[in-house]
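Wed. Picked up where I left off yesterday with enoyl-[acyl-carrier-protein] reductase. The coffee machine is broken again, so keeping this brief.
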Amino acid sequence: MLTILSNNRLQSSYLNKILKSSLSSIVQYNPRNNSLNEITTPYQIKLPEGNENVMNYMQYSKRGNPLEVLSCGKHKYEIHDDQVCVALQMSSLNPADLNTVEGRYPIKPELPAIGGNCGFGVVTQVGKNIKNLSSGDWVIPGKVAMGTWSTHLIAEEQELLKIPKVRPEFASILMVNPPTAYRMLHDFTNLKKGDWIIQNGATTEVGRSVIYLASKLGFHTLNFCRKGTNFDSKKKMLKDLGADLVLSGEELKNRKMMKKIIKNIEKPKLGLNCVGDFWVPKMASCMAKKGVMVTYGGLSVGTKVAVNPGLLIFNDLSLKGFWLSRWVQTHSRREREIMLEHICEIMGNDFPVHLECHNLTNFKIALKRYYSHLQGSRKIVFLNQY
Ligand SMILES: NC(=O)c1ccc[n+]([C@@H]2O[C@H](COP(=O)([O-])OP(=O)(O)OC[C@H]3O[C@@H](n4cnc5c(N)ncnc54)[C@H](OP(=O)(O)O)[C@@H]3O)[C@@H](O)[C@H]2O)c1
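Structure written out below (tokens, as returned):
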């Protein structure tokens, strides 16, 4: 590991550096000196040593502010004949996971619960009755909210999905964000090569997955993100992923400018919204007749999704919603496996993943950095180094 920086100014310049890079980058946060240490990619898998059979995790016994209700837990485990033990490698911290802990998400795990929904691990032990998994297989949770902020996951075979051995950093994000992007590109309108998609929140992991998948599938993207302090770097990062156009919210509000841009492209048939606020009516007014605007997130808290009624009446614009958990509940395991295989085929080798890793025991520090947005465009993950 190489220590790179230790104060906020340097952090910001490092952020610029990773935003400009078209490769994955993984850094580990060191709370002792507030520094970020670079980890060589692809990340090397590590497995627990010894036979202690102890798992450590972050749990909550009442819903509320994650900083207040989450605490470390530890217990000895054993597996039954119908169970598998998974050594979790990386588990991410996603906006919905925090909403689940707060009790503001439609999924309400039975309490006490271990936090976390997304991540991947390696099977280390299998019970006598297990038929389709063996030690060394890579898996992701097959159900929501199984509790991935943990060193281990004890589960039945049908609760897990075997995945191809792609780059570990990509496996860490495979469960939720790329499938969300993939479904939205496939399920709402019949996109043909050369068609355009308009989206906000383009720097989110879903937004970046949309850009990458769209460009590989032959679609064009018109992308918006917040200007912030690193707009040129964000723009470069998104263009490197395959974005055709990247603009700021200020530019979206500029009617004259948008009119000129839309005149030069085919009007987008698909709109993707994870923010809300002014972005939705402005984006909707750029869309093609019979276009579909899909809302899948509400990053701007308390916002409404509203459009000019004329767009619904005269342009036949549709407003729809997407929730991956609902898709998972209504589709078979085989359909999900086929989708994951296709995603790994398209994105597994070179979709750039930017991670900021924390030890599970430093959970609250990770959370504070997340709330202060100090991780920048990196996804926060808990890394189990055993
Ligand atoms: N419906 C589903 O099935 C589903 C599945 C997955 C995710 N989601 C939702 O999709 C959204 C993105 O998730 P993710 O995991 O991809 O996020 P993420 O990678 O954690 O994205 C974080 C980025 O969002 C941007 N952001 C934060 N607040 C914003 C705001 N108020 N306005 C505009 N941009 C803002 C910031 O980028 P900048 O600083 O560059 O602006 C930030 O870096 C979330 O709302 C999540 O809940 C929904």
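Quick read: The chain has two domains: 1-173+353-386, 177-325.
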